[in-house]
Amino acid sequence: MVVRNQQNDEVIELVEDGLRRNLRRLIPPDRAVLLAVSGGPDSMTLLSALTRLPGRSGTRFEAATIDHQLRPESASETELVARTCARLGVTHHVRIAPPAKGGIEAGARIARYEALHSIRRKRGLDFLVTAHTASDQAETLLMRLSRGSALTGARAIREHRDDQVLRPMLFLTRSDVERYVAALGLEVARDAMNDDPRFLRTRIRREVLPVFNAATGGVERALSRFAALAAEDDGELQRQAVAALHRCRWPDGSLEAIALVSLPRSIARRVLALWLSEHDVELDAELIEEGLNAARNRSVTTLPGDRVLICTDGRVNVATAPPRLHATS
């Protein structure tokens, strides 16, 4: 039940007007989307707000819940979403998707997006829409910066990904979402894993961001804006790198060493990363720097998988490591 007062009206207007504007900007007319709805406050806000928009903002949508079966409560959370969708007249899909190999967070994320995209394609839907907020953006940015990420990592959560994933709620903070949930009296699920201090994201959310917010009066939107600007800058640098790779590449696929090392360092790193990716080389920042040094010094550096990056006769190539390097790599 909606309790009408000025504060509630303000947050309802903030969420729904902002969401309507972003959907019109991000989604062309007559397109259909799949909403990723876990039952938590963010995704239930997305689901509720979309159903409340006049004419549903001209967008046809369905919802999906992915159950990783990591917690006993997951079944009841899925049922909550199913019940809510039935009441709102929204087609709802459920998939069981245990986490992929790797850490719990990363494995669950991989399995979740694979399942969501599978549903989207089978249903003939154009976009996948998630409920990431500016708070999620700030947490992701700080996590990546703490690990020494470059500009590509600093772009954090992109509003529109190449795989047709849209994030129209990046203008909202978690506080905005909680106020909207309270204003409409929404029934939502609370995932205890979001409070588990074993995860870096949780520690940033509970320990780091409150300090920043207390010192600045609210840092999440500022960090989110920085990430959006970083994404624009990163995109431009990447376009320049693609063009530079074309200029540096010989017909046999090798790179011209002088052309590579004469590029601005920021572009040269990206050119080498693009080229090594074509050779299925697992990349990290240290390897890229070693590769550029090898090109500059006309030398050799080892690569994963018993291979080497070698610069001879002014050309950079990837080759099988000789037996001596096999033994020492």
TrEMBL record:
It comes from Archangium gephyra. This is tRNA(Ile)-lysidine synthase. It catalyses: cytidine(34) in tRNA(Ile2) + L-lysine + ATP = lysidine(34) in tRNA(Ile2) + AMP + diphosphate + H(+). Its main location: cytoplasm. It is an enzyme of class 6 (ligase). GO terms for cellular component: cytoplasm. Its EC number is 6.3.4.19. Residues 33-207 form the tRNA(Ile)-lysidine/2-thiocytidine synthase N-terminal domain. ATP binds at residues 38-43. Belongs to the tRNA(Ile)-lysidine synthase family. InterPro entries: Rossmann-like_a/b/a_fold (IPR014729), TilS/TtcA_N (IPR011063), tRNA_Ile_lys_synt (IPR012094), tRNA_Ile_lys_synt_N (IPR012795). NCBIfam families: lysidine_TilS_N. It is found in: Cytoplasm. One of its GO terms (biological process) is tRNA modification. The keyword Glycoprotein does not apply. The lineage of its organism: Bacteria, Pseudomonadati, Myxococcota, Myxococcia, Myxococcales. SUPFAM superfamilies: Adenine nucleotide alpha hydrolases-like, MesJ substrate recognition domain-like.
